[in-house]
Amino acid sequence: MMSIPLNGKVGPGDAELLAEINQLRQTRNAVILAHYYQDGRIQDLADFVGDSLDLSRKAAATDADVIVFCGVRFMAEVAKILNPAKTVILPDMAAGCSLEDSCPVDDFAAFRARYPDHISLTYINCSAAVKAHSDIIITSSNARYIIDQIPADQPILLAPDQHLGRYLVQETGRDMVLWPGSCIVHEQFSEKELINLKTRHPLAPVAAHPECPAHILNHADHVGSTSSILKFVRESDADSFIIATEPGIIHQMEKTSPEKTFIGAPGIDGECSCNQCPFMALNTLEKLRDCLRDLTPVIEISEPERLAAKAPLDRMLEMSPPQIQQTTDSMPMSGRAY
Ligand code: 13P
Ligand code: SF4
After folding, report:
1. Pair 173, 197 in one domain
2. What is the span of the domain harbouring residue 247?
3. Could you tell me whether strands 136-138 and 222-223 are parallel, antiparallel, or unpaired per DSSP bridges?
4. Is the CB of 75 inside a 6 Å radius of any atom of ligand 2?
5. Are residues 153 and 177 in the same domain?
6. For residues 96 and 82, is the Cβ–Cβ distance under 8 A?
7. Angle at CA 288, nearest 5°, toward 62 and 310?
8. Three-state DSSP state, 309
9. N or C: which end of the chain has fewer CB within 10 A?
10. Is residue 57 exposed (0-12), middle (13-18) or buried (19+ Cβ within 10 Å)?
11. Phi, psi (rounded to 5 degrees) for 215
């Protein structure tokens, strides 16, 4: 069957597919969770849209029989680790993450062994196997809050995102040993083009994800997770914003603040299309329909690995800030009980 191009807007060609998905989600008693980097149409049909922490919490709490994870594989793995009795499916099993790829488990285990006195704070963007070798999982929305609870004399390893790590070293004043991984998407932004853009839009604040390198974060007025960036643009009085993260998030911004203008930060070729996450983009409406119909690809994790990976995730949930009141960007999109 021909693939429907995803441009974030529901078109007449989508009606049949959407009807099939709506029918199947009921038959399967499925909940559809989506990350802000997904195509706008997937975000709009999801039961919940959120950042990595929001989605982990939703996955842990759902009583649906099937969790359809419209995000990348490590996010779907977290859902399975926290809620093993559920069937967790992902529209495309090839939806990986460059940060996960940058941190193979054997190398990570050897890295840990070199620093026996350090605890490992591991960014959630990693495999279940790496989580199983970690002490506490962090996301970009809880990292600072969790680090502040760790005694000042406790040495820390932070993996796999060196840019998030450097940003946290600067913010917390803690000296951490960093794993040299990075996100291929957030590394694409061009400082030169960003400065040019700021010159043309001097009143537009720059909001950036901490996965961006320091030369981009140095120009940011706000640095935070996807949900924190959404909150910033919603609450700011500015009329236009420069957004230095994956452009899928602009869909939510345009929904919640239609009167404001959002400009994607440019990539190295002066365009922002190269900042689309190629892994997130693998999920399509067709694949979503197919995975609901066939209950495959399904996430499977061995029980010993799941239990080992669950311990640092449970620690993360215990040490995270209290759940913030649901806002329009993380609320149930179709009003389903969950
Ligand atoms: P958030 O947790 O901020 O949504 O980030 C997830 C991610 O993969 C960013 O690239
Ligand atoms: Fe991974 Fe980067 Fe894609 Fe986020 S944007 S899922 S860190 S590759």
Report:
1. no
2. 189-264
3. unpaired
4. no
5. yes
6. no
7. 40
8. helix
9. N
10. middle
11. -65, -15
- Closest ligand 2 atom to residue 183 Cα is 2
* Residue written as token pair 């924190």: 228
Q: Best of 35, 97, 138, 246 to mutate for ligand 2, by most ligand atoms within 8 A of CB? A: 97
Atom of ligand 2 nearest to the CA of 246: 5
Q: Starting from the CA of residue 100, give the closest ligand.
A: 2
CA of 225 to the centre of ligand 1 (A): 6
Instruction: Quote the tokens at residue 285.
Output: 């409406």
CA distance 164 to 183: 10
What is the chain's pLDDT, residue by residue, as a tens digit (338 residues)?
333 334 466 676 788 999 999 999 999 999 999 999 999 999 999 999 999 999 999 999 999 999 999 999 999 999 999 999 999 999 999 999 999 999 999 999 999 999 999 999 999 999 999 999 999 999 999 999 999 999 999 999 999 999 999 999 999 999 999 999 999 999 999 999 999 999 999 999 999 999 999 999 999 999 999 999 999 999 999 999 999 999 999 999 999 999 999 999 998 876 555 689 999 999 999 999 999 999 999 999 999 999 999 999 999 999 999 975 444 333 333 322 21
